[in-house]
Amino acid sequence: MEDLPFIPSLRRRGLRGGYKFTTLPIGRECPLSPCGRGLGEGYFCINTLMTDIKQPIVEIRNLSKSYRRGIQVIPVLENINFDIPEGEFLALMGPSGSGKSTLLNLIAGIDKTDTGTVMVGGLDITSMTETELARWRAANVGFIFQFYNLIPVLTAFENVELPLLLTWLSRKERREHVEMVLQMVGLADRMSHYPSQLSGGQQQRVAIARAIVTDPTLLVADEPTGDLDRVSAEEILELMARLNQEFGKTIIMVTHDPHAAERAHIIRKLEKGILNAHS
Q1: What DSSP line would sit under 55-98, residue for residue?
Q2: Which of 26-30, 120-124, 152-156, 226-230 has the lowest mean pLDDT?
Q3: Which contiguous run of DSSP H or E holds residue 140?
Q4: What's the helix, strand, coil split of the chain in %, to 5?
Q5: Among residues 81, 22, 86, which one has the least CA distance to residue 265?
Q6: How many CB atoms lie within 10 A of CB 13?
Q7: Which terminal residue of the chain, N or C, has fewer Cβ atoms less than 10 Å from its own Cβ?
Q8: pTM of this structure
Q9: Is the Cβ–Cβ distance between 18 and 87 less than 8 Å?
Q10: What is the dihedral of CA 58, 204, 147, 249, to 10 degrees?
């Protein structure tokens, strides 16, 4: 029987993001010590062992990307090289047209590089076929969009359940997962509501629940607060910070907003397709 992909009782206990997870099926004895007793510095056990060792989850090498407009070649990204440690919250900033969203799409496997490699979790996604990429995205990437991208004729519950329909989970297991993440984002009492019956902030929380319900390796967010008022934006940023700090989720966020970027642990800036080495 598969473990639940998310354990609500998991807490950091003072550790900062960048965990390395080793999931143990419920009932299996911890190989280091039973129930976490006697573990060394930086370890504990709640059916999951965590260590405060930051390994790169994303490794980008010599990445370049351009688009064609007729016979004109328009460079978008030039020779990008950087790593994103596992469990980090990274913000990509830069003016419009600097290549932020293009870089996010390349990391998420939505677009293809011209040259260079993108490694995620040790896998070279630039060498995958379209079919392999589709499967990889479904299992490893949670998307959070500026305009929510909820299906208006589906309830909050049904919108969140959609990614799970591609899994082998039973109907009962899907319901448990959906109810759990909607409770996490504070919408347990709005499961039967349609998007038109929810505020902008509530719709974005449904979108976040949909993004995390499969327990993805990465959460990628493209201007997640761009369509929200200041109060709702603050609630969304607080929720994203909690997902990172308490649950160790790796988050990559594109934003124009310096206030939003302050929530990230790392800020990288793009200027005309070139990554600022000092950001």
Answers
A1: -EEEEEEEEEEEEEETTEEEEEEEEEEEEEETT-EEEEE-STTS
A2: 26-30
A3: helix 130-140
A4: 35, 25, 40
A5: 86
A6: 9
A7: N
A8: 0.79
A9: yes
A10: 0
Q: Which residues pair with 61 in a beta bridge?
A: 117
The yes-or-no verdict on residue 136 having pLDDT over 90 is: yes
How confident is residue 269, by pLDDT bands cut at 50, 70 and 90?
very high
User: What rounded mean pLDDT belongs to the chain?
Assistant: 83
**What tokens were used for 51?**
């260590």
- Cβ 50 vs Cβ 248: under 8 Å: yes
Q: CB neighbours of 76 closer than 8 A, spacing ≥ 6?
A: 65, 66, 67, 99, 102, 273
C-alpha–C-alpha distance, residues 204 and 74, integer Å: 33
Rounded CA-CA distance 88/249 in Å is 7
Whole-angstrom Cα distance, residue 195 to residue 187? 12
Token pair belonging to 197: 């019956």
User: Nearest CA to 107 among 149, 60, 56?
Assistant: 60
Is the pLDDT higher at 81 or at 3?
Answer: 81
* Strand 218-222 relative to strand 250-254, pairing: parallel
